[in-house]
Amino acid sequence: MHLLIDDVQLWDGTGSTAQSKMSVEVRDGRIHWIGPASQWQGNRATVRVVDGRARTLIPGLMDCHVHYSSPGGPEWIARFTDPLPEISMCAIELAETSLRSGVTTARDVGAPHGVSIRLVRAARAGEIRAPNIRAAGTWIAYRGTYVSFASQFGEADELRNAIRTEIEARADLIKVALAGWNEGARSQDADIPFDKKLLAVAVEEAHKAGFKIACHANDPTSCRIAAHAGVDSLEHGMFLEANDLEAMAKNKTYLVPTMSVWDAMLYYARAVDWPETRKKRAEDLRQGSRAAVTAAIKVGVKIALGTDAGGGAARHGRIAREAELMVEFGMEPGGALIAATSSAASLIGEGDRGTIEEGKIADLVLLDANPLENIGALRLIVAVFQEGRRVA
Question: How many CB atoms within 10 Å of residue 169?
Fold first, then answer.
């Protein structure tokens, strides 16, 4: 595919300011040339030209926390226990929904029955339309503390074996769960059996094998343990405190705040008349998240965008809402875009993606407005390009 996106405002994700009247040439799935539109030397008769006037080109978006095996919504947990054929078909549809919203790369951080790993294989074989997916396989949790369909352990050797099993199953990363599910069934100040010694075992085992490890933590105890453990990313983190954030900055642990979780919960609390306990849980998450994210920005913790679509009430295809929440809690629009592109790429390990630079893979999103002026412009998608091919 030979493509020219012509006369466009370019935001390349490197930290540079946006540049107007630029052109980007794509050949064989990679970015071949970038420069002022007036300086392009090619032959328009031999290239597909995309009109970029009054539009903004950004790198393909990345969602660092999805679960394609559930659609989200008010009964999201139940959907993980649907019949396997239904889950598998749903995952294919949801991955394409995600792609159409501008997500060209995603981390699927937990699925039952190995669904996410099979989804990755189908996507890499070109059998389905989906983002470039890095999958964690299933969740790993201490026995009796998490959902029944997670991989469960009771002692250190079982934990090591669970991690090795995921690696042998061709997972791309490891996902462990310290806290309970997002319903918050456990007392928030209670001790948890997946303690710092066991988490140290998990981090050592994953890193020894060259794998990154993501950690589910959404109450004060689990946030404190995970923040000091040297995990690669802390997922949710709604109750992180100052000392936790300082440790994360020191350890270069990414925060993936998944604010869409409580945002969707608050909506469904009104729309389907949830019980007061669920409403209070959503409010508590919002308050904790606001404080944690605002403080993380000030301390300099690395932040990568993740929606938790499917793993909570948030539905797929709504990455723009997560970026809006980041801006509401103190990020500049450019910072939210960095969290969804180059910062996310660093966390996931996608060095060939995340920015628009010559030689990199041409994952691109063309917008009908400027997200640096209004982050909601991420909803105004003109085209999505994956490895230089228009896919949405």
Answer: 12
